[in-house]
Amino acid sequence: MPSVLPDGEPVPADGTLPARALDGAGDRPLGFYLHVPYCATRCGYCDFNTYTAAELRGSGGALASRDNYAETLAEEIRLARKVLGDDPRRAETVFVGGGTPTLLPAEDLTRMLGVIRDEFGLADGAEITTEANPESVDPRYLAALREGGFNRVSFGMQSARQHVLRVLDRTHTPGRPEACVAEARAAGFEHVNLDLIYGTPGETDDDWRASLDAAVGAGPDHVSAYALIVEEGTQLARRIRRGEVPMTDDDEHADRYLIAEERLTAAGFGWYEVSNWATTEAGRCRHNELYWRGADWWGAGPGAHSHVGGVRWWNVKHPGAYAQALAEGRSPGAGRELLGEEDRRVERILLELRLADGCPLGLLAPAGLRAAGRAVADGLLAPEPYERGRAVLTLRGRLLADAVVRDLVD
């Protein structure tokens, strides 16, 4: 969750949504994202809305403490119940992200989940995920999460090479994420993800192959592989600017993506979104699919974003300001925007084109349809789905996904 918030109109103090936001809500899934903004240390590449203990000291006092964070976030879930009124939907997904959610006691994470269960209920077979730093969990912690209702866990692996982890300022040791997969399986987790990053300065193709092989060998049913984006204002950006580490170029990113596709496909993983592979349909991250398909979700926590029925809003960033708003009975919302039909059409193209089943050609304007025809001729969109009325990226198209999207939207 990026730390920079957009502009927007004010959010009402009670968080009230326009009446149209819940029109047809029963036909849309509802999920919850719970943001835990705490980290033990700040990774050099990270631009997310996260805070170390030193960064919070003296800037919000006890209100920003992680000791009472579970109850603070629970207040926003209760606010969500008031705002959504008699909306009968039960939560189909819950995703706890950060930050490092597993810096909190397992009991705090299950307590937050329990408030969603009490206020909204959980759908049969609901997907309940938490992110985890490999060094912040052990078998007992994972067993407590599983007993508390979590059924999916996502570990931040990033790389199997120590020198790559060092550039990223990751604190875990090589081999620990793979051990975490085994511990999660032993605790009863059926669905386990490993997050990888490629394109770190100093990483070689062989380093990347070793990371992929280590991830696959650990036995998860889901792997996410993201190209490193160097965000302005981060420690890594400053190091690159000073010439301490080299910048990885787009051609290297493309080569690494092709290696990932080759290695993961050979191991029985299939891509279902440009940066995500799963061994089965059940192994896909259903929560992320809510985002990509424009469903409804409530994001609770500092800086968290929400979307319900074409209304998108975001919370204040700082944990102290967030807690203060809730303590005063106010929505922590910092701003919102009401999406028009054209906005929603464009967003559907932007997000759905990244999926393995693509987006309907019917979403495209005349100029976009002409661009789609050219993309088929250029080998960027698959011809057979195109004939059936869908725009689906080829492997080459996935390498140039952002450019293809721009052409179809323009």
Q: What is the succession of H and E elements?
A: EHHEHEHEHHEHEHHEEHEEEHEHEHHEHH
User: Percent of residues in helical segments?
Assistant: 25-40%
Which segments are poorly predicted (pLDDT under 50) over 5 or more consecutive residues? none
Mean of residue pLDDT values: 93
Major pleated sheet: 9 strands, mixed
**What would you call the structural class?**
alpha/beta
What is the distance, rounded to the nearest whole angstrom, between the alpha carbons of the first and last residues?
Answer: 27 Å
Enumerate the strands of the largest sheet in spatial order, edge to edge or round the barrel.
7-8-6-5-4-3-2-1-9
Tally of helical segments: 16
Number of strands: 14
* Residue share in β-strands: 15-25%
Instruction: Kindly provide the radius of gyration, computed on alpha-carbon positions and rounded to a whole number of angstroms.
Output: 21 Å
Give your account of this protein's structure.
By secondary structure, the chain is an alpha/beta fold. Helix content is 39%, strand content 19%. The protein has 16 helices and 14 strands. The chain has helices spanning 53-56, 69-84, 106-119, 139-147, 162-168, 176-187, 205-218, 235-241, 250-266, 286-292, 319-327, 341-352, 366-377, 383-387, 395-399, 401-409, and strands at residues 30-36, 91-98, 122-132, 152-158, 191-198, 222-227, 270-273, 276-278, 296-300, 305-308, 311-315, 333-338, 359-360, 390-391. The strands form three sheets. A nine-stranded mixed sheet has the order 7-8-6-5-4-3-2-1-9, with helices on both faces. Strands 10-11-12 form a three-stranded antiparallel sheet, with no helix packed on it. A two-stranded antiparallel ribbon has the order 13-14. Helix 3 packs parallel to helix 4, helix 6 packs parallel to helix 7 (205-218) and helix 13 (366-377) packs antiparallel against helix 16. It is globular, with a radius of gyration of 21 Å. It is found in: Cytoplasm. Probably acts as a heme chaperone, transferring heme to an unknown acceptor. Binds one molecule of heme per monomer, possibly covalently. Binds 1 [4Fe-4S] cluster. The cluster is coordinated with 3 cysteines and an exchangeable S-adenosyl-L-methionine.
